[in-house]
Amino acid sequence: MVNKEKKGIWITNGLLSQFSSSWTMLKQAIENCPDEYWYGTDKDWNFSRTVYHIIETQEFYMRSSPDGMVWGKLLGNLENKDLSAETVYPSKGILIGSLDEINKQISNYLKSIEFESLLQKDDFKWFSSIFEKLLYLLRHNAHHLGELGRMLREWDCKRMKWQ
Q1: 32 band by pLDDT with thresholds 50, 70 and 90
Q2: How far is CA 49 from the centre of its chain?
Q3: pTM
Q4: How many domains does the structure of the chain reveal?
Q5: Which end of the chain has the smaller Cβ count within 10 Å, N or C?
């Protein structure tokens, strides 16, 4: 019989592996997007905005509570900005840096969390456990990675490699 500690290690290592793979794919998507498409808008959505959304949502769900999240902090003051302007969404370099930070954050988190803690609820009331929240986040990332992959394919660009 496998003890709880070993099960916890298997689960957290599995989650860490999947998050790392999704971040590798996201980094490839950013790097493979030609500059002329980075800020281009198609039906009120664009590549840079999708990347930003993935990273910001990761930050949101890695918290223990939805309260107090500062949405759009990498965007600066939007009060006098044209939301369709290139200056609104961060550059590739800034988002890759943010991606590296988020990757470190989740890596440290999953390396330190106890198995029993994964089964606990936090203040995200719509999830039954922290484990469910993490699975949701992986699914969310996969959905948007698919959108980015579709955009790269339609533009006949180098695509992400499956990780």
Answers
A1: very high
A2: 12
A3: 0.87
A4: 1
A5: N
